Amino acid sequence: STFVELERAREKFSFTYLPEEAEVLFKEALVCYSASSFNAFASMCRRTAQVVFEDQGDSGKLRLFDELNEIRQLAEIDLESFNVVKKVIFNNDGESKHSLPALDPFQAGVLLEVMKDLLHQAYVRKGRLQQAMMVRRFFIEETSGNIAAFGKNSA
């Protein structure tokens, strides 16, 4: 019998609002995940997280840590998988040369969904809200200008 290894479907993610370095790293992480290279995927997720933490600052890192705990509750992630994901995302390489845990396929899937959610919270959600507010402001200014002009013409 012959075994044929199938590649996973490429994961979709909206990169529109991510800083360029985070986008490049997370795209590579997704390639690793699709190729079932879960340890490489974990390594790229850690690198992505480090860039995000640098960009967001200490308060942003704390906010994302709180977000991770909320994700655990919402998704009912088991403690072992949560600890592996937390270690990949939040532990520094300086702690020890073996600080990055090996992931099984399930844990890699959990890490994938957590990373997508954290990146969404840190950038995509904020970007979309800011864009929506800018559009609203534009239409209000356009509308109020037209109403004022209309009022002057009818007087």
Mean pLDDT: 84
Order of helices and strands: HHHH
What structural class do the secondary elements suggest? mainly alpha
Low-confidence stretches: none
Please work out how many helical segments DSSP would assign.
4
Binned, the helix content reads over 70%
Shape: elongated
Describe it:
74% of the residues lie in helices and 0% in strands. The protein is mainly alpha-helical. The N and C termini lie far apart (88 Å).
Itemize the secondary structure elements and their pairings.
Layout lengths: L19 H15 L3 H38 L3 H12 L14 H50 L1
Summarize the structure.
This protein has 155 residues and is mostly helical.
Features:
155 residues; mainly alpha; 4 helices; elongated
